[in-house]
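Re: the request from the purification team.
They wanted to know what the chain is likely to look like in 3D before they choose a buffer screen. I agreed to run a prediction and write the result into the notebook, where they can find it.
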Amino acid sequence: MAIGPRIVASGGFDALYREGMALIEEVASYLDGDGRSDSRRLKREASFVYATESMRLTTRLMQLASWLLLQRAVNEGELTPENARVEKEKVRFSATPTERGGPGFEDLPERLRGFISKGDRLFERVQQYDKLERGGVPDYSPETEGGIADQLARLKAAFGRLKE
């Protein structure tokens, strides 16, 4: 078994799963409660941005929930990795905007902006886990001293010398 799937099946996934599901519940509660009253107090431009961003966030979180539930089913032996891959192919993650902001974004309620930020970070982590699960190496900046890419580069260099 490749190291990636073993890492995904480890306790790190459990923490990611709990965090993801908690965020989904928290966002749903906010949008159905305080978020409604927050959105009514916004100016027209910010109100449009609120509708757009809350829809994007909800879509993104539902995609993440699908991925998390599929991965949990694999980890618990309820689904084979091959079957999960087929199902995961049906879940297309929407792209994260390269930059957040624009007219009206800063006028959004702070809580919504916080949820958007948390959702983006969670999405990045899930993408890394997905890549690991597929046997790939996560995309971490090689410039980060002591980071995973740096450590992998050092291991490759060390094992490369051993083979010679």
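For the purification team: Residues 44-75 form the longest helix (32 residues).
Please add any questions underneath this entry.
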